[in-house]
Amino acid sequence: MIGADAMIQCLEAEGVEVVFGYPGVAICPFYNSILNSGIRTILIRTEQNAAHAASGMARMTGRPGVCAVTSGPGATNVITGIATAFADSIPLVCITGQVISELLGSDVFQEADITGAVESFVKYSYLVKNVEDIPRIFKEAFHIANTGRKGPVLIDVPIDIQNAALSKFVYPEEVNLRTYKPTVKGHAVQIRKVIRELEKAKRPIICAGGGVLLSNAEQDLRKFVEKHRIPVVSTMMGIGVMPSRHPLYYGMVGNNGRAYANRAMNESDLLIMVGARVADRAVSQPGLITRDKVLVHIDVDPAEIGKNAGPTIPLVGDAGNIIRDFIEEDFECEHEDWLRLLDEYRVSMGIKRNPNPAYVDPAAFITELSEKMEDDSIYVADVGQNQIWSCTYHIVKNGKFFTTGGMGTMGYSIPAAMGAKLAAPDRQVVAVCGDGSFQMSMMELATMRQHNIPVKIIVLKNNYLGMVREYQHYTYKDHYSVVDLSGSPDLEMIAAAYGMGFYRLENMERASEAIDTFLSSAGSMLMECVIDPMDLVK
Amino acid sequence: MQKKVFQLLVDNTSGVLSRIAGLFSRRGYNIESITAGVTADPRFTRITIVTSGDDVILEQIEKQVAKLIDVRDIKELTATSSVYRELVLIKLRTTPEQRQAVIAIADVFRANIVDVAPDSLIIELTGNLSKVDAFISLLDGHEILELARTGITGLSRGSDDVAYFED
User: Fold this and answer.
1) Backbone phi, psi, residue A348, to 5°
2) Which of A57, A101, A289, A517 is most buried, taking the most CB atoms under 10 A from its CB?
């Protein structure tokens, strides 16, 4: 057995079914050994998307997504995908090939100091120096990636180590990390304090973030808030913790969120942030959420607590564990007036749009699309105006909503949707992007065709980098700079070139029928929605 | 802004120092000095960092450092309950006539003369920050050719908060 065989056996021991990647000489022993396993390999068309696809898969399965690329440019290309997973706390194990150990540091062909380069975007990284360390390192990497605050771990394996003989392979039963022991159980005294505040509160609210989803605690949260009738808002990464039309759910907060959600948060007297970072896009003025109210901050990462806002009650631990502890507590709270007020806000503070009838209205379109999507479907939003419209108008039923709220990496939706589809082949997966973000990942249409990954793609086409154009509209008084997407290809011809079905929707007249056709088509399909270039999210 | 001294016990892995230094630089934290050396158990390194910031920053420094996978323990070394020491080497230009005066000052500070050349000498001094600073300021009339300070290292007094090694 050689190192490469050991790497594959480690992946099998971790239950890995799919590896996304792109080979090069330095990772060839790994890709040679993988042929002897049942692990499926997906040849992605650029390395960044290998990490995004692994991210989509991780978000579906709850286990680390895996990608494997070569040294040098392969490794540096994957950095943006790793940084995206880091910002969004998505567990990944990223394997990079490396040049021969002896030559490290001598600037040979396709050498890059990848462990150094990704230092600030990974939970941890390894440079394997001894083939006998492979089982331990892989065991630790999967453990670190998927425990505590989740995130990417990189393993850099020189080609000579992949080819070196291993005396014996034993996959460790457990990890022995002296220095890494995340706190996952909430402190009982702090939990009691939160319950006492809930008993007293007249206007409590829970703001749920992506941590609730990462902890797989949506059902626990719903059970808890339904039992005590506590209203919930979410951050962008938290969309999907509650069904969008749940009576206790009041939408996404933040500068791109619902006005009534922000008002609900600001007027509360008890705010429980759970699995949310109090990041700038969700809470632009942290001073407001600490003034005149009790702030409870629940997070598995103690460094997030107090970073942006000083909480009254800090509570370190896994969201699911803590919510289940809350459910066990016997207490009463009464705030029907508060719920009635929030319902009034929800009605009176809705968004008023004046869509141009000559075009597809993204708001009405996304609402209708999501109503027609299957109950447990997966909607992946890209970055740009399409993301904000998706967050605002997509209706989550019992499915999932994925986007990169932390890093905001354009081009995320198509590869992430591919990862999700591979993890859940029986579920409907729709990627929604703009014409800018579509062109950042357009090359993956080939991957979809080659590996038969029938993702459905919507392109909201306005011939602009719409989000930046909107910013230039407000900030620079329509002084547009480098946002015109003229020269974009004919999407119908692109779809034909990749053997995909195609539908162009130019206004709302036939939207309903178009969506039916789009969703019911077998295989992958590209739908172009022509939207008003001057449309604004705000 | 206040100054704080943190002591870290870290796994002696390759790259641990760059991970810690990198964390400080990318998050914009100050490092006034950093010293590192292996402990009695060669698997661990003890690092002493002198840093400064407001309360929020200092709390973040402690939490972000604690989050690093290689970090076993981080604690503050307070002035009242810790011992700090720094070593400094000073190369002074000295004529034979000046030499005795310099040696006299060094004696007062219990510093050692560790090298003598025809026109220079090297003084070694160990002490806390204020002692080292006071000594350097007393050498004002002399030309300092080179000066090397280690930055402080320290230990807390007593055995109450020792982070023991585990197997």
Assistant:
1) -80, -20
2) A57
How many Cβ atoms sit within 10 Å of the Cβ of residue B2? 10
From residue B42, alpha-carbon distances to A140, B10, B11, B37, B161 in Å are 21, 11, 9, 10, 21
Residue B119 neighbours by CB distance under 10 Å: 10
Tens digits of per-residue pLDDT, A58-84?
A: 999 999 999 999 999 999 999 999 999
Return the closest-CA partner of residue A31 out of A66, A5, A53.
A5
Question: Is A390 in the same domain as A522?
Answer: yes
Supply angle C-alpha A195, A201, A204, rounded to 5. 90
The answer to whether the Cβ–Cβ distance between B63 and A120 falls below 8 Å is: no
- d(CA A299, CA A295) in angstroms, rounded, equals 13
Using CA atoms, how far apart are residues A135 and A258, in angstroms rounded to an integer?
A: 48
Which residues span the domain enclosing B15?
Answer: 2-76
Query: Any chain A CB within 8 A of the CB of B99?
Result: no
Q: Do B71 and A179 touch (CB under 8 A)?
A: yes
Residues B8 and B71 in one domain: yes
State whether B60 and A303 contact (CB < 8 Å): yes
One domain, residues B70 and B88: no
**Shared domain check, A335 and A231:** yes
What pLDDT is attached to residue B165? 63
Chain A residue with the nearest C-alpha to that of B74? A179
CATH number at residue B146: 3.30.70.1150
Phi-psi region of B28 (alpha: psi -120 to 50; beta: other; left: phi over 0): left
In percent, the amount of chain A with pLDDT more than 90 equals: 94
ipTM of this complex: 0.86
Per residue in A303-333, pLDDT (tens digit) is 999 888 888 999 999 999 999 999 999 999 9
Distance CA A153, CA A20 (A): 15
The answer on B149 and B94 residing in a single domain is yes
Q: Are B26 and B70 members of one domain?
A: yes
Same domain for B43 and B8?
Answer: yes
Over residues B49-70, mean pLDDT: 95
Nearest CA among A360, A424, A371 for reference residue A394: A371
Q: Give CA–CA dist B126/B163, Å, rounded.
A: 26
Q: Kindly state whether A306 is in contact with chain B, defined as any CB-CB distance less than 8 angstroms.
A: yes
Q: Check which CATH number belongs to the domain holding A507 and give it.
A: 3.40.50.970
Domain count for chain A, please give it. Answer: 3
Q: How far is CA A190 from CA A227, A322, A339, in A?
A: 21, 10, 26
* A94, A129, A163 - which closes a domain: A163
Per-residue confidence band for B166, with pLDDT thresholds at 50, 70 and 90: low
Residue A178: list chain B partners with CB under 8 A.
11, 72, 166
- Residue A108 touches partner B, C-beta closer than 8 Å: no
pLDDT confidence of A185, banded at 50, 70, 90? very high
Which stretches does DSSP call E strand in A269-336? 270-274, 294-299, 313-316
pLDDT in tens, A360-408: 999 999 999 999 999 999 999 999 999 999 999 999 999 999 999 999 9
Residue of A nearest to B63 (CA): A303
Tell which phi-psi region holds residue A143, choosing left (phi > 0), alpha (psi between -120 and 50) or beta.
Answer: alpha
Number of domains chain B contains: 2
